[in-house]
Amino acid sequence: xxxxxxxxxxxxxxxxxxxxxxxxxxxxxxxxxxxxxxxxxxxxxxxxxxxxxxxxxxxxxxxxxxxxxxxxxxxxxxxxxxxxxxxxxxxxxxxxxxxxxxxxxxxxxxxxxxxxxxxxxxxxxxxxxxxxxxxxxxxxxxxxxxxxxxxxxxxxxxxxxxxxxxxxxxxxxxxxxxxxxxxxxxxxxxxxxxxxxxxxxxxxxxxxxxxxxxxxxxxxxxxxxxxxxxxxxxxxxxxxxxxxxxxxxxxxxxxxxxxxxxxxxxxxxxxxxxxxxxxxxxxxxxxxxxxxxxxxxxxxxxxxxxxxxxxxxxxxxxxxxxxxxxxxxxxxxxxxxxxxxxxxxxxxxxxxxxxxxxxxxxxxxxxxxxxxxxxxxxxxxxxxxxxxxxxxxxxxxxxxxxxxxxxxxxxxxxxxxxxxxxxxxxxxxxxxxxxxxxxxxxxx
Length: 444
Description:
Layout: H1 3-13, E1 18-20, H2 25-30, E2 44-47, H3 51-63, E3 68-71, E4 87-90, E5 97-100, E6 103-107, H4 112-119, E7 124-125, H5 136-141, H6 149-152, E8 159-165, E9 171-173, H7 178-187, E10 193-200, E11 202-203, E12 208-215, H8 219-232, E13 237-246, E14 250-259, H9 266-274, E15 281-286, H10 289-297, E16 305-313, H11 318-329, E17 336-343, H12 346-349, E18 363-372, H13 379-392, H14 410-415, H15 421-431
Parallel strand pairs: 2-4, 3-4
Antiparallel strand pairs: 1-2, 5-6, 6-10, 7-11, 8-9, 8-10, 12-14, 12-15, 13-14, 13-17, 16-18, 17-18
Helix pairs in contact: 8-11, 11-13
């Protein structure tokens, strides 16, 4: 059937569901993704307000053999939240958050900041990424490194249950099928539309954190110091670092440090971070998670064009650090950077086979990001990102963080799930045998 038939059928059978078509304002707003370079254009975008409506949309897309995609926060760098010439299900109207004791029930379209806005005033913390504008489901289903990882674990570790619309339109719960919960906790949005999740929350002991900016001339010293702090494995302290470029400053090292352990450990741990070098700017202080995410959001560029690559290393060894420093020297423009995300503490407590997430020993995930503005030549950026990925290979563990992997790197994708590749293939064949849902890449 044609795109026209799809839209006509949608309007006739579901007049209660808001639709957006090319040329309309709502359609244009839904195309506003974090990666401004995405050119995918759906035939129609639908905004359901309930799980039943999501189910009806999935069934109708299948009847028309139309490509189907799900848009949450719109942060997937490859733009997989838009269905080329098909139906995109926009979950922006499923953002409710309800706190129930030390758990939260969140809609499939909720952003990280939606959850934290409800949990933070109640003295509770949620495992999220650093940016509040990221969709909570997309982040959590693929893993979810964040600044509370040492004490709260990955975001996926905190998914206690989910309501899911499967590829045939059936609505199910992970309470009915524990294998579905296993697959969702690290296997990405590849098994259905998650319309709600139950998320574990954590007592807030009074977090202290923020950013410390060092000049690029101190990068070697700062990264050596970060390596030492990471090697200590202090559970209450989680570090993220980035070799970046700051306007009016130039090449820089940005260190994000968050203490979420017991209060008496905050001072010594964060003094050690400040002492990594001579900071240009330092903004580490007692804070709330809500304010912490809001501060990070101000630093996240929106609308640039992006190419991402990923590697994982066991530690920031001298060889790894030298490779990263050389790559930073060769970057093609100010939008190219390399992020380092610490994995430790509570995230390593989870048994390896408890979730689909593939690596539970201490490590550092490397995010190779190349961003350019509209009108710039993309080729130097893409080539740089790929060259950094290749150069790091001899120093890296197999695989990488799936949220940053492109599907063409099949060997790296297969290794990213550790010993879970066969189990994930079986889950995909069972829950989505026709391959309707395409999110983070799975082993082929």
